[in-house]
Design a protein that fits this description.
The protein has 558 residues and is mostly helical. The protein has a domain at 245-557. It has helices at 3-6, 14-29, 31-37, 52-69, 77-98, 112-118, 128-158, 164-177, 183-189, 196-227, 236-247, 253-278, 284-292, 302-323, 374-384, 389-398, 405-410, 414-430, 437-461, 475-483, 490-502, 508-528, 534-542, 549-557; strands at 298-300, 334-338, 346-349, 359-363, 371-373.
Length: 558
């Protein structure tokens, strides 16, 4: 059965219509979002309005949907999930707007600084029209950056500002992006088969975008940095809202912090046990050193990394599709890519609605890194691919028979998505894909890092007492703490900790999301008794598409 053949299986309802209209509204308000989901509303060469007026327009649009959706009556269980999840999401976005989150939106990974350069990674480049959209965005980037600066200036005026540490790190990013021979020049150098006039416009736009990043860096240095906050902590009130937004669930932050401390110790104990399997009597550090010297577990160069990623992913899809999951043909293609940037982040981008652009796993390799350890990275491929993000997200896109566009393409939270991906890592261990102790140690290395992030993130932003009992958490202590809990280069630790300090609530959503996924599964299993089927549970859960974790729990257990 093809995607189109499934699309008429369920008659759309009035609530579906409201949700579909909201997707179109968002695509008009945020053209970069339209690019991400592959919805062409005729604005794929434009940017959203990053100014205060743009944020106000977004809030007004959300209020209008809330007013329309609130009295709507669900006709079935699908409608109930859509209504609950969309209302919850919109109300949270309004709450963030009222707390002026956008006025302090500067961080090293997920702020307009990155959006304005990374959107090009997923823009199509096959036709003259595609390159015309790129040219339009390149040439209009200075206006978008001016709007962003206007918003941050309002934050300075109101005393709602980011921390100095984030501003300093982002200045470095902006200076790199401002290189006229750098990122944007390399982008337009790839244009081929386009007219001479468009080629000229592309090069002009590349220079304009690079110059605009120089302007942004100047603003950060001269205006925002002097006004920025000394503390990395955002405080309990802001943090509680951020946590709910990333999880789609409300958790007891103090209990979660204590659980994180205990979970971290469990990961350390499990790693210690496996280290002894790898090399009798070895500590975790000694076992890692032993593995790092094993030439059979090394890849040399990004070409070898990309090939290994693709082969590993293809094999997992083929095997799991036979036994443990229903994997439709449309989502059996996952492209493994080396990202054009060098931030060190590994991430996934979903397919377009028509699957013309498949799901993609991106590996951003830091400058100078040329060797990769397969024992450390195997679980990452499962996390980003199958049964992790790709199975989860592409399955929702595929499920046109039941889900409206909002449920397929936009709904969901970091806690749902990343929690599932960590859940998937453990599942692959249970299915025998990590029987090699070295591969299990690699998986636990990641799980330990995610547990440490729970402790660090809540600890810093709520200024709780440190686990060592030596006073309250600070940003400076966070670097030392993280360095002791991951076996990675100092540059990686620096980037990761800066990410947590500037994006409160996001990092814990991985491990806390995994915890909630496992709690839901265990409760579902207890209810089903002997009739419980893991395969059926996973299908039922993934068929819901992306939702907040409270919505997931209600849908599966009530």
């Amino acid at each position: 059965m093809t995607v189109d053949e499934t699309s008429s299986a369920r008659t759309p309802t009035p609530i579906d219509a409201i949700a579909e209209k909201w997707v179109e509204t968002l695509a008009d308000l945020a053209p970069t979002l339209a690019t991400y989901i592959g919805l062409d509303r005729g604005k794929l060469g434009e940017w959203e309005d990053f100014s205060p007026a743009g944020h106000a327009a977004n809030a007004d649009a959300a209020k209008a949907v809330i007013a329309e959706l609130t009295p709507a009556v669900p006709v079935d269980a699908v409608d109930s999930v859509t209504k609950d999840d969309l209302l919850g999401t919109l109300k949270l976005e309004l709450e963030k707007h009222e707390l002026a989150f956008e006025l302090r939106d500067v961080n090293v990974l997920a702020s307009p600084v990155q959006t304005l350069r990374e959107t090009y990674d997923i823009m199509p480049t096959e036709t003259e029209g595609d390159w015309a959209n790129i040219s339009s965005r390149l040439n209009s980037a200075p206006v978008a950056i001016d709007q962003y600066i206007e918003t941050l200036r309002l934050g300075i005026e109101r005393g709602v500002v980011p921390a100095k540490r984030q501003v300093l790190e982002v200045i470095i990013q902006c200076r790199e992006t401002a290189d006229p021979d750098g990122l944007f020049a390399n982008l337009v150098a790839g244009a081929s088969g386009v007219s001479g006039g468009l080629t000229s416009d592309l090069h002009k736009g590349a220079l304009a975008s690079a110059s605009a990043y120089g302007t942004l860096a100047d603003f950060f240095e001269k205006e925002l940095l002097p006004a920025a906050g000394e503390k990395d902590a955002v405080g309990r009130d802001l943090y509680a809202v951020a946590s709910r937004a990333f999880l789609g669930a409300t958790v007891d932050l103090d209990e979660t912090y204590e659980w994180g401390v205990e979970e971290l110790q469990r990961m350390v104990d499990e790693q210690t046990s496996i280290a002894n399997e790898i090399k009798p009597g070895a500590s975790v550090e000694e076992a890692i050193e032993f593995l790092n010297e094993d030439a059979s577990r090394k890849l040399h160069g990004t070409d070898a990394l990309q090939k290994w990623m693709q082969e590993t992913s293809d094999r997992a899809i083929a095997e799991l599709g036979k036994t443990n999951f229903d994997i439709p043909e449309q989502i059996r293609t996952l492209e493994c890519m080396i990202a054009p940037n060098h931030t060190g982040v590994i991430y996934y981008t979903g397919p377009t609605d028509d699957f013309s652009r498949p799901g993609r796993m991106w590996w951003s390799v830091p400058e100078g890194v040329t060797e990769f350890d397969t024992w450390r990275e195997l679980t990452t491929v499962y996390h980003e691919g199958v049964p992790g993000h790709h199975l989860q997200i592409a399955q929702a896109v595929y499920n046109r028979a039941t889900l409206n566009s909002y449920r397929r393409l936009l709904a969901g939270t970091s806690g749902h998505a990343e929690g599932w991906a960590l859940y998937a890592e453990r599942l692959m261990e249970q299915l025998g894909y990590l029987d090699d102790p070295a591969d299990r140690l690699g998986m636990l290395d990641g799980q330990r890092m995610r547990a440490a992030r729970v402790v660090l993130d809540i600890g810093v932003h709520l200024e709780k007492q440190r686990p060592d009992g030596k006073g309250p958490w600070t940003g400076d202590y966070a670097f030392d703490f993280m360095g002791k809990n991951v076996n990675m280069a100092p540059e990686f630790v620096r980037f990761e900790v800066n990410r947590y300090l500037g994006w409160p609530g996001q990092a814990p959503s991985y491990k806390v999301g995994q915890r909630i996924w496992e709690q839901i599964r265990d409760e579902y299993k207890a209810r089903e008794g002997a009739a419980f089927s893991p395969k059926d549970f996973h299908k039922k859960a993934l068929d819901l598409g992306g939702v907040g974790l409270d919505t997931l729990k209600d849908a599966l257990l009530k």
